Amino acid sequence: MSVSVMVVDDHPIWRDGVARDLAERGFDVVATAGDAASAVRIARAVRPDVVLMDLNLGESTGVEATTMITGSLTGTRVLVLSASGEHDDVLEAVKAGASGYLVKSASAEELVEAVNRTAAGDAVFTAGLAGLVLGEYRRMAATPDEDKPQLTDRETEVLRLVAKGLTARQIATRLVISHRTVENHVQSTLRKLQLHNRVELARYAIEHGLDVEPEGT
């Protein structure tokens, strides 16, 4: 099966050209969008394998769209295709959940390879940017524990139940709190830990030794 792709860029000529080039090379271009709000709405409807995302999208940004897409569509990966190679832009995109970052000066062959590798689950970066991202995450990992964000007891309990696979409503019933309160705790925990979705929360809980064995096992 061909890889399904959605192209997001606020310049119609560039957007249509990239979409046409990818379609001619065998990709299934299922949608295009010119702004962040449309990108999120359409991506949730068509659920592409890869979203090719620009960062400058007018009033909103590709980083915001990436956060919302990766947070709600676990089967969709975002590959940023931007004119900017600034370090801050790269790190913001990765922290928002992007799987890779390619500058627009990349060749057509590099773009095709990047989309295929992104769909396969690889992290893909323009030469020189991978080392930047790796260095940042090494720096974060070396931060002393006392400087890392601390979760409250309630946030820790909600995290443990999320990792067990309980839904927000099941957690609310278990802890005798409202569904909205559970969602607030989840979002607060995501922000503190700089994670992007419940899958990453579960991985964090496992890696940090919380009791996440599914109930009834």
TrEMBL record:
The modification 4-aspartylphosphate is found at residue 54. Keywords: DNA-binding, Phosphoprotein. Pfam families: GerE (PF00196), Response_reg (PF00072). SUPFAM superfamilies: C-terminal effector domain of the bipartite response regulators, CheY-like. Residues 4-119 form the Response regulatory domain. Residues 144-209 form the HTH luxR-type domain. This is Response regulator transcription factor. The lineage of its organism: Bacteria, Bacillati, Actinomycetota, Actinomycetes, Pseudonocardiales.
